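Sample 3 of the quickstart, ligand tetrahydrodeoxyuridine:
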Amino acid sequence: MDQKTYANLIRQAWEARKMAYAPYSGFLVGAALLTPDGSVYRGCNIENAAFSPTNCAERTAFFKALSEGKRHFSAIAVVGGMRECKEDEIDYVYPCGVCRQVMAEFCGEEFVIVAAISPEDYRVHSLKELLPEAFGFREGEAKP
Ligand code: THU
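Result:
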């Protein structure tokens, strides 16, 4: 994947962040998920007064794509920060453990996770790096 692909994905993640519903934490997150056919699914975090129903931006993007029949994924870009934060206060946001496990269900070890500050400033990781020894059924094993 080249720099242009990453930059485009990061821009879309910033767009997705505008839709975040995060009145409890004030922490707004956006994600953009790329499939091998070039489609991009955007997601934002969606919080809830009861807290536990909260959905992260990454899972929102995955569930949108999965519910439309997508089963193959190439990369996801993630951006985030407090609602009122200044540009120089933005830091890299990494997917939580639950989102990493969802990725492991549908993605190979080489799935790319881009933790970004801007289209020029980002870190690229593989899923294997961020979730080594993931729990899951091995290839060839029947899924229940
Ligand atoms: N959050 C995400 O959407 N993605 C992450 O990778 C980390 C956390 C959300 C969940 C919650 O709405 C807020 O950020 C604060 O934890």
